[in-house]
Every structure is written in C-alpha cells, then in structure tokens.
Amino acid sequence: MTAQKLSDDEINKLLSRMHGWRLANGRLHKSYECKDFNAAFGNMTRVALVAEAMNHHPEWSNVWNRVSFDLVTHSVKGISDLDFVLAEKIEEIFTMQTASRASSGT
Fold it and tell me: How confident is the model at residue 81 (pLDDT cuts 50, 70, 90)?
C-alpha cells in the first residue's frame, strides 16, 4: 500500500465522520477506555495484526485500561489515507469490544 498525503480539507472532511477522533500535534488522535488491562491489551493485539498486515504502524500508549493512538505517516510527512484506514479498523476493534461488554452485561 502506498500512502497518499491528504490535504487539510480532505483531513477535515474525513475527520468529521470519525467519532471521537481529533487532530493533535499534526496527528490523528483518540483514546479508548476498556474494561481492564486484559481487554486493552487484547485490543492492542488485534490492532497490531491489522497494522502489520497494512505495514502501517501506530504510535500508541497503554496505561492499565486506557489505550491512546496517534496516527501519522512519516514517509509522507503528514496524515495520509492509510491513517484513516487504520483509524477505521481501530474503531471497529474497540467498538466491537465495547458492544460485546454491553450485550454481556459486564
């Protein structure tokens, strides 16, 4: 996959469709809160598999049940289409975990 750097207008248009994601220090940023450390780490593992398949790796941090992401494409020196593709995959992974918790009553 070759990354295509996005213009500010393209970024703002795509960002308007991404619940909870925002620009922070020139990166796409979002934090997620999970049930506990195991859930957070499990989701990070799922993201790692997706990121490796895309060959597009996030900057992230984890403290107990919270995982924070900062997405930027270093090869294009900015935000690319790949950052939004990865953000959508991250959203799916973390939303699925939240939905699973809600349906199980935990």
Answer: very high
- Tell me, what's the pLDDT at 100? 53
Burial, 99: exposed, middle or buried (Cβ in 10 Å; 0-12, 13-18, 19+)?
A: exposed
Task: Name the pTM for this structure.
Answer: 0.89
Tokens of 61: 């941090």
The DSSP bridge partners found for residue 23 are 28
- Please count the other Cβ atoms lying within 10 Å of the Cβ belonging to residue 44: 20
Residue linked to tokens 């750097």: 5
**Which pLDDT score is estimated for 103?**
44
Radius of gyration of the chain (CA): 14
Q: Residue 23 in 3-state DSSP?
A: strand
SS (H, E, C) 30-83: EEEECCCHHHHHHHHHHHHHHHHHHCCCCEEEEECCEEEEEECEHHHCECEHHH
Rounded CA separation 44/106 (Å): 20
